[in-house]
């Protein structure tokens, strides 16, 4: 396989997938390359449901194998919020800064050791024949009191990564791709990659 479609319009995700797949010699094509693909409504209540929804809808539309990513931030002191609603936590506008402010406001006064959180990523691979496979990846950390760093996207500036002693937004793309929820999920997918596509390789 020389090219894979990622069913996303999120530029941050696309850049990370491009770097991760380049190691395998695979080009990434995203929905940013298409003018006429509407957003898939994320009506699921779990990351897996939404990832499967996005992957199967786009695979049916394009008649090609596609990967979809549904991901988000889970904050323990907020009973798991923003969770599957991470992209639209502060409203439908998908405003990263407003989402960050909402999390920080809700966590005001919560001490550092209780600000535990994790990023979760579910990847769904959907084939045009209806086969679907999912894998997951998780990255543990803490929510800071203020945004720090310019890199990455979404909640990266308020997510402190203990093993790097910096926020996710202070890491280079390469460093984030060593430890992130997305990179871990993709590692799991790459482990089963040949098995997933063996019938296609034979024919
Ligand atoms: O559905 P697509 O088109 O893929 O793009 P999206 O931005 O809507 O993506 P999701 O529905 O999966 O929502 C995930 C949200 O969780 C946050 N998020 C996911 N991965 C992240 C990461 O690596 N760093 C920071 N925030 C992340 C970010 O706010 C995303 O918008
Ligand atoms: Mg989305």
Automatic annotation (TrEMBL):
User: Which reaction(s) does the protein catalyse, per the Swiss-Prot or TrEMBL entry?
Assistant: dITP + H2O = dIMP + diphosphate + H(+); ITP + H2O = IMP + diphosphate + H(+); XTP + H2O = XMP + diphosphate + H(+)
Q: Alphabetically, which GO biological process terms does the record hold?
A: nucleotide metabolic process; purine nucleoside triphosphate catabolic process
- Cite the active-site annotation: 70
Free-text remark on how the cofactor is bound: Binds 1 Mg(2+) ion per subunit.
Keyword Membrane set for record: no
Detail which positions bind Mg(2+).
41, 70
Keywords tagged on the record: Hydrolase, Magnesium, Metal-binding, Nucleotide metabolism, Nucleotide-binding
Give the top-rank taxon of the lineage listed in the UniProt record for this protein. Bacteria
As cofactor, the record names: Mg(2+)
Q: Could you tell me which InterPro entries the record lists for this protein?
A: dITP/XTP_pyrophosphatase, ITPase-like_fam, RdgB/HAM1
State the Pfam families in the record: Ham1p_like
Q: Write out the function statement from the record.
A: Pyrophosphatase that catalyzes the hydrolysis of nucleoside triphosphates to their monophosphate derivatives, with a high preference for the non-canonical purine nucleotides XTP (xanthosine triphosphate), dITP (deoxyinosine triphosphate) and ITP. Seems to function as a house-cleaning enzyme that removes non-canonical purine nucleotides from the nucleotide pool, thus preventing their incorporation into DNA/RNA and avoiding chromosomal lesions.
What NCBIfam families would the database entry show?
Answer: PRK14822.1 (NF011397), RdgB/HAM1 family non-canonical purine NTP pyrophosphatase (TIGR00042)
Q: Summarize subunit and interaction data from the UniProt record for this chain.
A: Homodimer.
**Which family, according to the similarity comment?**
Belongs to the HAM1 NTPase family.
Name used for this protein in its record: dITP/XTP pyrophosphatase
Q: Specify the species.
A: Anoxybacillus kestanbolensis
